[in-house]
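Please fill in the sequence for the structure shown.

STRUCTURE ENCODING:
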């Protein structure tokens, strides 16, 4: 009887799966523990929603994320196969472009992924495709760090295919692809964490307003017709799909601490009058 483990491809798939699962568990659990447990009191004024998701939701998100990772690992095999057969010409060209290109290609990959995500994300919100592609992710109305990879299988395939398409047509070093995988899971878990961690200016607007904040994506889960962008706000603004309440909602979250401090000061007895 044939043993599946006798095939090298199965070993590669299992190895990729193991690495991807460890990466997801490390960041999803780590962000949850640091923000929701260790720093919960410190960050309580930056909590975007009053309600906290139930453990049952996080368990569901965890297992659907593992399913998504299985899809990612399958595309990882495709990446490996194309590379082995000399069809992944992008990394080969990139290997001769020097260290500066490593940084440039990472930046360009981030910009390219943002465009890929925006347009595929909008298509998945079309009523004809939503149920099949994107409903699972929006079952997390109030997201958690574990929501990061909680996708329907077709959606996971769309996300995973970006790396294949990008590296086939664009000279990107293998090391950049590996680094990008770490960046995107870290940024994704933070983007779903439910606490606004991004800095604000003196007018309570995002200090880096060209980047999506936690509030920006949280509003997408609350009001699904807006805020389709991944890393940047550009496409939403160019296409008129940014939530019109975004800046007000961001300012409201940022203002919680100062409002609480004023309320506490007003309710405290005046030491002069009561001496």
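FILLED IN BY: designer on duty
SEQUENCE:
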């Amino acid at each position: 009887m044939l043993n599946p483990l006798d095939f090298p491809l199965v070993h590669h798939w299992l190895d990729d799966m193991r690495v991807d699962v460890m990466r997801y568990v490390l960041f999803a659990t780590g962000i949850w523990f640091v923000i929701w447990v260790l720093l919960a009191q410190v960050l309580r004024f930056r909590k975007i929603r009053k309600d906290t998701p139930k453990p049952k939701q996080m368990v569901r998100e965890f297992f659907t994320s593992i399913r998504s990772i299985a899809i990612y690992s399958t595309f990882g095999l495709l990446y490996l196969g194309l590379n082995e057969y000399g069809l992944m010409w992008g990394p080969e060209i990139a290997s001769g472009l020097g260290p500066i290109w490593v940084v440039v290609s990472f930046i360009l990959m981030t910009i390219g992924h943002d465009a890929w995500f925006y347009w595929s994300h909008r298509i998945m919100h079309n009523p004809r495709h939503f149920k099949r592609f994107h409903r699972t992710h929006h079952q997390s109305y109030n997201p958690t760090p574990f929501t990061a990879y909680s996708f329907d299988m077709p959606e996971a395939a769309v996300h995973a295919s970006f790396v294949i398409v990008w590296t086939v047509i664009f000279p990107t070093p293998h090391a950049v692809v590996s680094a990008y995988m770490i960046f995107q899971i870290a940024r994704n878990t933070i983007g779903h964490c439910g606490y606004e961690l991004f800095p604000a200016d003196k007018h309570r607007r995002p200090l880096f307003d060209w980047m999506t904040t936690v509030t920006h994506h949280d509003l997408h889960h609350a009001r699904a017709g807006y805020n389709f962008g991944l890393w940047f706000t550009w496409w939403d603004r160019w296409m008129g799909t940014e939530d019109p309440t975004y800046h007000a909602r961001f300012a409201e979250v940022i203002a919680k601490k100062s409002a609480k401090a004023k309320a506490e000061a007003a309710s405290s007895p005046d030491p002069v009058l009561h001496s």
